[in-house]
Write a structure and sequence with these properties.
There is one protein chain. Strands 1-5-4-6-13-7 form a six-stranded mixed β-sheet, with helices on both faces. It has a six-stranded mixed β-sheet with strand order 10-9-11-8-12-14, with helices on both faces. Strands 2-3 form a two-stranded antiparallel sheet. It folds into two domains: 178 residues, D-Maltodextrin-Binding Protein, domain 2; 140 residues, Bacterial extracellular solute-binding protein, family 7 (D-Maltodextrin-Binding Protein, domain 2, 3-Layer(aba) Sandwich), CATH 3.40.190. With 336 residues, it is α/β, with parallel strands linked by helices. Helix 1 runs antiparallel to helix 9, helix 3 packs antiparallel against helix 9 and helix 3 crosses helix 12.
Length: 336
Amino acid sequence: MKTMNMTKPLAGLALILNMGGVVEAKAETLSLSDFQSTSHIVSVEGTAKWMAAVEKATGGKITFNHFPAEQAAKAKAQLDAVKSGILDAALLGPSYHSESLPLNSVVDLPGFYDSAVQGTKALQTMLKDGPLRDELLANGVTPIFGFVLPPYQVLSKKRLSMPAEWKALDVRTSGGTQAMTARSLGAVGISIPGPEVYTAVETGRLDAILFPLASVPGYKLNEVVSHISSNGSFGGYSFVMVVRSDLFDSLAPEIQKTMVETGNQSAMHVAQAQDESAGVLIEEWKAAGIDTYSFTEDELKAFDESLALVADDWASRMGGDKADAVLATYRQLTNE
């Protein structure tokens, strides 16, 4: 496994016939891209561990050239880069591809899961079969595994509690669905990729950020805010590891099985690691003088009331029975 800088991504993993006529997998290298830094918990506990697990389980028949931190493609260009063959695989943020993957944005809805483990279990189930998987396949990529970030919190330079305090604020959101959450609270949702958020807050372009606690250190956002909530649920965010479908379909069945099985393990591992990191981070931030606070029961109730219609608005915006079915399934799975 290598982390590359300027090397051109290597495409292809072929099958060859040996002299006895038995099909064997040729040892090849897959180019894999993501937009997280190598220090981000998603990379350390997710992408890197999965690549290492695949290489070990396949005995080196599958190896990777890893292009982190948008080296091979910007966050919003990852899907197109895989579809076009520039890359073999990518860790997608579906919210950055809402036009191509609208139904996958159901994970962005507020108030559905309380932990990354809970949300990841629901997403993994929905990626195995049904509309979320079909949507990815229709774009020429095969989902290997998926996981979610912990519930989004609000980070700001002043404490934000009741919804009335959010009126007319410019709030960073991760996509159209989360922008609906901001609007329901009276704020203006502004979609900005994670790597650009630090500067946007530092320069005053943003009043607040919706962000998961486990991802804050990866972008050093604790350096530019003074207040961080700890028990809100302002939406979620999913990551899906995908491989170009024609490439994946050409792999030997045992290789496909290995990639998926190690992916299932990696998904739950990174989800648990994120949940466990939250308590440690909160104590660190408190020690550094950041106001890390919990909403009161009355405040949580007020947020629930303000955000109650976001899910229905999402289904209406998506349109059709398929969106209703996706929402119903997601609601059921996150309530189990």
